[in-house]
């Protein structure tokens, strides 16, 4: 329980933790940030790390001169791209074995075939948009690998989405993070960055399930 409370406190007050780390350990902050972004995007069991808020705070620290703007974008973009590639590779390694399984209570082969068809048609935009959605950005590259999306196509959208995500949020933090109102309400902004995309994902999943049910009943 203490560990969970500490994680929640870190997510909601990541600005204080990160500023303290920069003050005490200097450039080691870049290694820490690289690791966090890589793990969040590259390890499918770690979807709860504070990617969006972390990038925003990094931008704010760049804006006040505590971190380097260009280095932060280059390093964290690399971490985001490599993380997705790792996640995709894990899914692609598992995928061929999964598709050989027979239908059972633990595996729905038809669902995996639908996922493959979906990623062939909409995989690119899914990879890009998932970057901005907590939890979904961790699972999207894994599912793309399982669904056997081609590596070249995945890499193109991986880099594109990563550049928009890392560059966009760090830049937003750089220009707006030092505004007094933003600093005073950062915890609320962080909650919004977590909850709003989550609600959109749940609403989309509910709508898709409802449409599927209607289609099956007709």
From TrEMBL:
Annotated localization: Cell membrane
Gene Ontology CC entries for this record: plasma membrane
Note the InterPro entries from the entry. DedA-like, VTT_dom
**Native organism:** Ramlibacter cellulosilyticus
Q: What is its main location?
A: membrane
Keyword Secreted among record annotations: no
Q: Name one Pfam family in it.
A: VTT_dom
Q: Which residues form the VTT domain?
A: 49-174
Q: Member of which family?
A: Belongs to the DedA family.
The source's domain of life comes to Bacteria
Q: Any keyword Cell membrane?
A: yes
Q: Where are the transmembrane segments?
A: 28-49, 56-82, 122-144, 156-177, 189-206
Regarding the membrane, this protein is recorded as: Multi-pass membrane protein
Keywords, A to Z? Cell membrane, Membrane, Transmembrane, Transmembrane helix
Instruction: Show the PANTHER family listed in the entry.
Output: INNER MEMBRANE PROTEIN DEDA-RELATED, TRANSMEMBRANE PROTEIN
Q: What is this protein called?
A: VTT domain-containing protein
């Amino acid at each position: 329980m203490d560990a969970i409370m500490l994680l929640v406190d870190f997510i909601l007050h990541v600005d204080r933790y990160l500023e303290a780390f920069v003050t005490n350990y200097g450039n080691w902050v870049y290694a820490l940030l690289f690791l966090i972004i890589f793990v969040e995007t590259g390890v499918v069991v770690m979807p709860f790390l504070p990617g969006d808020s972390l990038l925003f705070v990094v931008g704010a620290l760049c804006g006040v001169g505590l971190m380097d703007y260009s280095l932060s974008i280059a390093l964290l973009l690399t971490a985001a791209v490599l993380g997705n590639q790792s996640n995709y590779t894990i899914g692609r390694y598992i995928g061929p074995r999964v598709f050989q399984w027979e239908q059972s209570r633990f595996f729905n082969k038809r669902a995996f075939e639908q996922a493959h068809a979906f990623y062939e048609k909409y995989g690119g935009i899914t990879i890009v948009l998932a970057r901005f959605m907590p939890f979904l950005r961790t699972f999207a590259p894994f599912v793309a690998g399982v669904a056997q999306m081609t590596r070249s196509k995945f890499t193109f959208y991986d880099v594109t989405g990563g550049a928009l995500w890392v560059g966009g949020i760090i830049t937003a933090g750089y220009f707006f993070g030092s505004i007094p109102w933003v600093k005073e309400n950062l915890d609320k902004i962080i909650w919004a960055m977590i909850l709003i995309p989550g609600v959109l994902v749940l609403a989309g999943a509910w709508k898709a399930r409802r449409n599927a049910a209607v289609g099956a009943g007709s």
